Amino acid sequence: MSNLILLNPEIILACAGLLILLAGAFIGESRAKLLFHLGTISAAAVLGMIITQAAMSAYGMGTMWVLDPGAQLFKFVILAATVFTLLLSVNYSAIQPRHIGTYTALLLWASCGMMLLSGALDFIYLLISLELISISCFILTGFEQKNPRSAEGAIKYFLMGGLSTAVTIYGISLFYGATGTTNLLNYASSVDFHFGDPAYVMGMLFILVGFGFKISMVPFHFWAPDAYEGAPTPVTAYLSVASKLAALGAMMRIFTGVIPHYALNITLLIAVLAALTMTLGNLTALFQTNIKRLLAYSSIAQAGYMLIGLVVADPIGRESVFFYALAYLVTNMGAFAVAMVVAGKTGSYELDAYNGLAKRSLGLAIVMVMFLLSLAGIPPLVGFVAKFYVFASAVNSHQFLWLAVLGVLNSVVSVYYYMNIARRMFFTESKDPSAVETDMYTAGVIVITSAATLLMGLLPETFMRIVKDCVSFRI
Amino acid sequence: MSLLSLIVLVPLIGALVILAIPGTRIKLIQGVALAFSAVCLLLSGLLYHLFDTSTAAMQFVQKVSWIPAFNIYYYVGVDGLSVALVILTALLTVLAIIYSFNITLRVKEFFFWFLLLEVGMLGVFVALDFFLFYVFWELTLVPMYFLIGVWGGPKKEYAAIKFFLYTLFGSLLMLLGILALYFNSTPHTFDMLELINQARLLPLTMQIWIFLALYVGFAIKIPAFPFHTWLPLAHVEAPTGVSVILAGVLLKMGTYGIMRVSFPALPLATKWFLPFLIVIAVINIVYGAFCAMAQKDLKKMVAYSSVNHMGYCMLGMAAMSATGFNGAVLQMITHGLITGSLFFLVGVIYDRAHTRDIDAFGGLAARFPVYAGLMIIQVMASLGLPGLAGFVGEFLCFLGAFEAWPYYVAVATIGILVTAAFFLRMIEKVFLGPFNEKWAGLKDMNLRELVAIVPLAVLTVVIGIWPRFCLDLIDPTITYLVGIIK
């Protein structure tokens, strides 16, 4: 029990959530926004803790979970996303003051679950963290009580999520039946013994489905557009960034680390799913007229690109996923922040709301173009470096060159809908010429993310070093 | 800091300065844009002055580590192949900025994108690290998208996105080619000169795949048949200053890329590809010329004549000899000067008459002698009249190619005839014959237009009479280049 201390960041975050929930019951409605600040401060404090512990490495409680630079990197991404989400929530009007405590607490707990997930090495531990994430996120999605879309999204998310959890648990039980353990490391010492055991391969496939749901991999993505559209916008940003990346981090640990997919002979399957994910995501995004749905499909496509690195699974491939996660964090957060500002002014998430934005607020339009170009992978922005990294890994592998070619074609398709927003902002006129104001907190998020989008693109070296260290690390 | 970095940096600073000026201060913005691009031109004049024409080696080299994780450097330098293109870019940008002083819509954004575009173009020609090259290559894309899309003609939005998607498709395939080159070198490097040394040893099939990936990227920019369909649309819809840059500089990025990397780095694939290249060159020449002949719109005609002229360029490249290569590079430069000024001249008439229909005019020569004079000089240069710049480049291209591909060259001469035919017919319809009284109220060219066009006309004559002025810059590098390809 002694090294329970390794969980200090998660424990602190969970306790902060509890305190905020409790405080929410007593605080007056006029001062309820204070709770957002408390939440932001606690998430930021834990973020600081993670940074100071970046080089730590240990196994927790036997081999229940692991602390290594890779896990720390994903915790960093998750907490940064949490801080951004809370800052975006401060002036988000659809959250009622008396619910702010609950909202903040749920967000912190979801993040806590994701942090646990990023180090999980035991299926029971993994399942508990997954459930903590799912249940918190289901409620957060349905938080706009007056909005029927929100309820619809939450119900869809809940039903599909429940199903996927059931499938995951079934997979775990098969795995247990075949190997006699729920622990991945214990199992890993006797890999050859289980090789080709159908129950075991089936078990792993079911577990893959569970992850596929979380990262919105085709064909398990159907919940995403509805949930993204219905959820409060900060939550949408959170789901598309933190929830997806946390699950991806765990997938990386399991399917390229302890039980590599090539040892299971399911590499081709994942490659095909990656190809489908980016292609369907992009093709469907072409026809969206709602910015949240568009970004939802775009985030499905982005997951597809990230999966290329997972399929390649050599050091470069794994590094590329880590780097892509960092790039995706700042870019997607920024895009959602701008979407929220525009919707706050115009009251609409339809693409029409972007008409003539360049004339109304040139600065906002330019940063939005930056985020979109970064998502599309145009230099010198960070999204380009991330795509470059992923494609480099695929070209290097020879075997998966076709994924790189498909990724390239997809990038061209994606430019069409990303630039369609740029076209509306710069080439068309708006009926309402008044400027779009940005509140202080959202402006902060936009400034930080846009600066990071540009600087990480121009000077990616530091981050490349970090991801290289994460991948080459052996405990 | 080396001179080259300064040349690239100056317009970037200019763009940022413009961003800081309030949009209502139009005169100031125009002044700043002109000042920064003029400084850039002066620096490139200094470059011309300091350039050593006796060596084929890279000059003004600067190499700074940028992304060590991928062995990427900020690595710039020029040789005879690129130095003239750098100067051409700086010159055309200044002139296009002067011409664009008549833009009244969203002036601040216009000049911001314009200077950013200049950064990208200059960067492409000076970059010696393939990653850096790619970053600059893509950097030209976004400004061009906005320049066409906001300030263009009736179909501007379609033209802008078509240009963007076409070019991006090509450049992403090029990126895969670049990555393949990178991973096939030891130690992995993006250094172009190093890649040229190493990639030549790759097996043929590998070379062919890489060559094709790079070729698609370059061919779309040139534009080589069948990737040319974006060009007429983009050229016609773009505002005058932007059309000039498109035709004058952007197209050259494609031929430059092929001569800089594809040929020397992949000699086996080049040999394999030559029969296709010559066919594409001939199609570009003949088909481009016939398409131009069919146009009623002046600007479209000039746009298709670009397809035709870039065909000459490829013809010279397919020759694989010093003569042909010299011709190809000279053709790049003269085409920039001549077609650049033709687009200016078409802009001049369009600004006045608001039509570009060839049949709508007649007898303009008597009323607008200055305009007619400049137009006739440039048209004659474009159709290859001896004594003007266009002739020298075309002649060298044909001469070089004739040794290697006599029959193809014979077919390509049809293109020359057709070019002469449509240009002369245009002169007849627009400038000769009875004067159309509808245009009686129009004025001849004003100072702004003269300042933009006269320097190009002067250069056209100078290079036509004394081509060594240009060829001396190019020749040592070309001789070296042909040597390593063979």
How would you summarize what this structure contains?
The complex is a heterodimer of chains A (475) and B (486). Chain A has 475 residues and is mainly α.
Q: Which percent bin holds the helix content of chain B?
A: over 70%
Give the biggest beta sheet of chain A: 2 strands, antiparallel
Uncertain stretches of 5 or more adjacent residues of chain A = none
Low-confidence runs of at least 5 consecutive residues of chain B: none
By helix and strand content of chain B, what is the structural category?
Answer: mainly alpha
User: Major sheet of chain B, described briefly?
Assistant: 2 strands, antiparallel
DSSP helix fraction of chain A: over 70%
Tell me the Rg of chain B in angstroms: 21 Å
| Mean pLDDT over all positions of chain A | 91
Shape verdict of chain B:
globular
Order of helices and strands of chain A: HHEEHHHHHHHHHHHHHHHHHHH
Distance between the ends of chain A = 20 Å
Proportion of residues in β-strands of chain B: under 5%
Largest interface: A-B, 32 and 32 residues
Strand order of the largest sheet of chain A: 1-2
Radius of gyration of chain A: 21 Å
Q: What gross morphology of chain A would you assign?
A: globular
Explained architecture:
The complex is a heterodimer of chains A (475) and B (486). Chain A is mostly helical. Chain A has a domain at 266-475. Helix content of chain A is 76%, strand content 1%. Chain A has a two-stranded antiparallel ribbon. In chain A, helix 17 crosses helix 20 (440-458). The longest helix of chain A is centred in the middle third of the chain and has 32 residues, at 148-179. Chain B has 486 residues and is mostly helical. Chain B is globular. The interface between A and B is medium-sized, with 32 and 32 residues.
